[in-house]
């Protein structure tokens, strides 16, 4: 006897089914948002920003954004601005962009990962691999939080080093 599929009421095949399996229990919510087009609002992405990226296992965009923040911090420190008060403004812009485009970013990230799984796994293992790779959870949120904390420590260490060099 097979386990019930989380999408057993829908007649979905191929890519759409794998996308549903990847997203998990919120698949219906994301499907509605994706049908709205490229820009649809996501309050969780807006409010939680980088932590939402971690929660949804979008580590590459998370690392890219943290890398950009770090570059801005280094530029500010080189100019003698150790407060980096404009980080708040950049953070707000990132939150708005994630709020407006996070749903589409999530779909693109999911489709990319599904494609990698389809090309690297035997057909009978694809569904299981997609379910393992996708979804969301506390562990992925925690990893996102730890990446953010690592950024804070690195930025702080660079600030202390640069401030020491200016003394």
Short description:
The chain is mainly α and 167 residues long.
Please state the CA-atom Rg, rounded to the nearest Å: 19 Å
DSSP, total strands: 0
Overall geometry: elongated
Give, in order, the helices and strands: HHHHHHHH
- State mean pLDDT (0 to 100 scale): 88
Biggest β-sheet description: none
Unreliable segments (pLDDT under 50, ≥5 consecutive)?
1-12
What is the rounded distance between the termini?
72 Å
Q: How much strand?
A: under 5%
What count of helical segments does DSSP give?
8
Q: What structural class do helix, strand and pairing data support?
A: mainly alpha
Helix content: over 70%
Name the features.
mainly alpha, 8 helices
Describe this entry's structure for a reader.
This protein has 167 residues and is mostly helical. It has helices spanning 14-23, 27-35, 43-48, 50-55, 59-78, 87-120, 126-133, 138-166. Helix 1 runs parallel beside helix 7. The model is unreliable at 1-12 (pLDDT under 50).
């Amino acid at each position: 006897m097979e386990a019930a599929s989380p999408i057993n009421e829908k007649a979905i095949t191929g890519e759409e089914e794998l996308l549903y399996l990847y997203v998990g229990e919120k698949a219906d919510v994301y499907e509605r948002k994706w049908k709205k087009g490229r820009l649809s609002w996501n309050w969780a992405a807006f409010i939680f920003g980088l932590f939402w990226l971690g929660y949804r296992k979008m580590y590459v965009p998370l690392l890219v954004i943290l890398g950009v923040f770090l570059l801005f911090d280094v530029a500010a420190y080189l100019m003698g601005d150790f407060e980096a008060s404009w980080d708040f403004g950049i953070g707000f812009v990132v939150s708005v962009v994630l709020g407006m485009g996070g749903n589409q970013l999530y779909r693109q990230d999911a489709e990319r990962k599904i494609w990698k799984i389809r090309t690297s796994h035997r057909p009978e293992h694809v569904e299981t691999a997609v379910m393992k790779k996708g979804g969301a959870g506390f562990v992925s949120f925690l990893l996102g939080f730890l990446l953010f904390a690592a950024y804070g420590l690195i930025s702080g260490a660079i600030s202390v080093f640069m401030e020491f060099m200016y003394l």
